[in-house]
Design brief:
10-stranded mixed β-sheet; single chain; 3 domains; Aminopeptidase; about 35% strand; Acyl_CoA_acyltransferase; SH3 type barrels; Rv0428c-like_C; N-acetyltransferase domain-containing protein; GNAT_dom; about 25% helix; 8 helices; alpha+beta
Length: about 325
């Protein structure tokens, strides 16, 4: 049977799904173990997350990992993503990055647990909790998987909960720049600063934008804000693109379409325009972050060549 220290590792779970007495039928789930509770477990498979009640588990074990990016590549991409979403308050704990931004988004309000915290893991977690307490926030830790599997195991022992699994996906920029041009759609406008209604559309999905949010969104030196408007000037779609180091990564975020304008190809239209901008800024690869449970977005990006580079869990300290 699997244990908490197996979270973050590749496993196979054989599940009883039916049959007759003495002749049970089984099905297997192969993927990354992302959650294990007293009642069930969840495996992130290539077809999406599979939750299995422990009462239905016939056999489960850890299996060798598939080919994964080197730890250094994961760290480099995470640091580029941090530069693209820069919390206005940051501090270092060894290699870990502690971030606060008025509680706007988990990314900007969590400790990025990559590298060596320059102390024991238990003391590092204590230091994270103390830092966030000083900043008046509940402690969060962003734990890339499976790189931070030991961190997740330590947090499990302390009763930290996990938010939904996030996929960090990448694609070659050429696959986006070469998308067919849609001359039947309104043009994509790319600006250095966001318009008030750009902020308003983002706020509809992300909640009220505090000052820290605006500082995050406009912080990177190489940032572009995409808008598509109809003939009356009303917004149809928005997005945000960045290019950051290390690696000259093109970061894609906040791709949003007005409800009445969906299923017209506007997201693809915007991705193409931003990719061409990024190429002019010497980017060669793109990345984005999407919750695994957002099946529609995952399918959209898969259709544009995005595959999962690594995953992460945002862990939340228990309330006291």
């Amino acid at each position: 049977m699997l244990r908490r220290q197996d979270v973050g590792h590749r496993v196979v779970v054989r599940r009883i799904v039916g049959g007759s007495p003495g002749r049970p039928q089984f099905t297997d789930a192969l993927g990354e173990l992302v959650e294990l509770t007293e009642t069930d477990l969840t495996v992130a498979t290539t077809r999406g997350p599979v939750r299995v009640p422990l009462s239905q588990v016939h056999r489960a074990k850890r299996v060798p990992p598939t080919s994964r990016p080197p730890a250094g590549d994961v760290i480099a991409l995470e640091m580029a993503a941090n530069a693209a979403w820069p919390a206005p308050v940051q501090s270092r704990l060894g290699d870990w990055v502690l971030r606060a931004a008025q509680n706007w988004t988990g990314r900007a309000n969590s400790a990025l647990a990559v590298g060596d915290p320059d102390r024991t893991l238990e003391h590092a977690v204590d230091a994270v909790v103390a830092w966030y307490t000083d900043h008046g926030q509940r402690a969060l830790i962003n734990a890339p998987m499976p790189l931070a599997a030991p961190v997740n195991a330590a947090l499990d022992r302390r009763g930290w909960t996990a938010r939904p699994l996030t996929l960090v996906q990448t694609a070659g920029l050429a696959g986006l720049t070469d998308l067919p041009e849609r001359r039947d759609l309104p043009p994509v406008d790319l600006a250095d600063t966001p318009a008030p209604d750009w902020y308003a559309m983002v706020a509809e999905h992300k909640g009220t934008l505090p000052d820290a949010a605006r500082r995050i969104l406009t912080g990177p030196a190489e940032t572009v804000f995409a808008t598509v408007r109809d003939e009356h000037g009303d917004l149809l779609a928005v997005a945000r693109g960045t290019v950051t180091d290390p690696g000259r990564w093109h970061g894609i975020s906040l791709v949003q379409t007005a409800p009445h304008a969906r299923r017209q190809g506007l997201a693809r239209h915007v991705l193409r325009a931003m990719a061409r901008w990024a190429a002019q800024h010497r980017a060669t690869r793109a990345y984005l972050q999407v919750e695994e449970r957002n099946a529609g977005a995952v399918a959209l990006y898969a259709g544009h060549g995005f595959t999962t580079h690594h995953t992460y869990l945002t862990r939340e300290a228990p309330a006291f």
